Amino acid sequence: MANPSLLILAGDGIGPEVMAEVKRIIAWYGAKRGLTFDVSEDLVGGCAYDAHGTPLHDDTMAKAQLVDAVLLGAVGGPKYDGLDFSVKPERGLLRLRKEMDLFANLRPAQCFDALADFSSLKREIVAGLDIMIVRELTSGVYFGEPRGIFDDNEGGRVGINTQRYTTNEIRRVARSAFELARKRNNRVCSMEKANVMESGILWREEVTWVHVNEYPDVQLSHMYADNGAMQLVRNPKQFDVIVTDNLFGDLLSDAAAMLTGSLGMLPSASLGVPMANGRPKAMYEPVHGSAPDITGKGLANPIACILSFAMALRYSFDMGDEATRVETAIETVLANGARTADLMGPDGGTPISTTGMGDAILAALDASL
Ligand code: NAD
Fold first, then answer.
1. What is the number of the ligand 1 atom nearest to the C-alpha of 14?
2. From the CA of 74, how far away is ligand 1's center (Å)?
3. Helix, strand or coil for residue 318?
4. 132, 314 contact by CB (below 8 A)
5. Is the separation of the CB atoms in 265 and 199 below 8 Å?
6. Which CATH class is domain 130-259?
7. Is the distance from the beta carbon of residue 264 to the nearest atom of ligand 1 less than 6 Å?
8. DSSP H/E element including 312
9. Would the CB of 7 count as within 6 Å of ligand 1?
């Protein structure tokens, strides 16, 4: 069988710094586990604009459509703030998501025991937390028509956005959530506002349809999204997989992420429909941005990007054991006290560099053999 293929788009700012540590782990897999990835690299964001006058060249887009998975670092930076909206670095990212039709955004909220005191919640509420939020990414109120700001014909203006979901859009993201649940603890909680929104009623009905007809073995519950927000801070460990729409998912995934501490720890995946080889179209990226304030200083925490690669192992390549190996290595180094600057607690200590964290994780991977 062909080697799994990866397109690395490291991007701007700390993107290349954190991606360098992922590349070392990919090389480790080749050298120590006989697992070779066909890796190609290209530009996205500001660096692509510098080279080509566009944040994503057509050739890069075409490559992204062909590989098994895209690994993205981060895009943007103050140098590009004045650019026209159409060529801003983020447009490169949005084009990838749109043209690859990545409709399911996976945002895990996982709390490593060694970092439980970083959360704004009590240790006992977050220690051992491991939930997955699946957010619909390509439809809903951010895309629905009509939209715009219009005269209201009474001397004022009216701002309009439209929440719109079709059967197909709901069913496909529901399937992603049920599939994930089967690989985890087999529970899905669907969140909407069926009490006040017709689109929420349809959401609930269609998720239920997929459950009854295709995934009766998975446990399904429903919750109003506002209650979901409360439950996430009251008792987040009650959840396994949460599936929700684009708008609620935007808010709930950020709230859940902060349960776990630093932005430098948060991975994500965006998945589309399966390709001919059965693997879903996929892009993996840390949640954080290009962090211009720390770029070039060796301060960036590479763990979010490395955990994003672990998600690729699990969700694109069906290598759950190897994903667990990477996650366990990270857990070990954190338990041993390795900290980048963003993970320094109030009691201080000496932080290690981006490369230092990479070294420690590689040593833990060696020890796992
Ligand atoms: P940011 O995520 O880049 O940084 C926010 C804060 O978190 C900064 O203080 C930064 O130093 C810190 N931080 C982020 N990642 C870190 C890491 N891995 N290790 C240690 N500290 C880390 O968000 P921002 O400052 O609002 O945006 C900076 C640029 O990134 C902007 O141009 C923005 O448009 C862009 N951005 C890109 C993405 C993306 O590529 N997906 C996401 C968000 C923001």
1. 18
2. 8
3. coil
4. no
5. no
6. alpha beta
7. yes
8. helix 303-315
9. no
Ligand 1 geometric centre to CA of 90 (Å): 12
**Would you say the CB of residue 60 lies under 6 angstroms from ligand 1?**
no
Nearest CA to ligand 1 atom 8: 291
130-259 matches 1-107+263-369 in CATH topology:
yes
Ligand 1 proximity of 308 Cβ (cutoff 6 Å): no
Residue 35's contacts (CB-CB under 8 Å, 6 or more residues apart) are: 29, 319, 322
Any atom of ligand 1 within 6 Å of the Cβ of 263: yes
Instruction: Show the tokens assigned to 263.
Output: 């932005």
Q: How far, in Å, is the centroid of ligand 1 from the Cα of 239?
A: 28
Mean pLDDT lowest for which of 116-125, 195-204, 252-261, 344-353? 344-353
Contact indicator for 264, 299 with CB cutoff of 8 Å: no
- Range with the poorest average pLDDT among 88-102, 223-237, 336-350: 336-350
pLDDT in tens, 33-55: 999 999 999 999 999 999 999 99
Which of 265, 288, 297 best tests ligand 1's pocket when mutated (most atoms within 8 Å of CB)? 288
Each residue's pLDDT tens digit, 191-211: 999 999 999 999 999 999 999
The closest of 81, 67, 6, 23 to 362, measured between CA atoms, is: 23
Class level of CATH domain 1-107+263-369: alpha beta
Domain boundaries, the chain: 1-107+263-369, 130-259
Alpha carbon dihedral 272, 273, 277, 283, in 10-degree steps, equals 0
CA proximity to 38, closest of 9, 59, 75, 7: 7
